Amino acid sequence: MANFDPYFPHIIKSEGEAYTNDPIDTGGCTKFGIILQTLKEYKFDTNKDGVFTCEDVKSLTLNDAKSIYKKMFWDYFKADSIKNQSLAEYIVDGAINQGRGTIAKYIQEIIGVTADGLVGNKTLEAINAHNPKELFDNLKQKREDKYHRIVAKNPSQKRFIKGWINRLNSIDYQA
Question: Domain 8-168 adopts which CATH fold?
Answer without folding.
Answer: Chitosanase, subunit A; domain 1 (1.20.141)
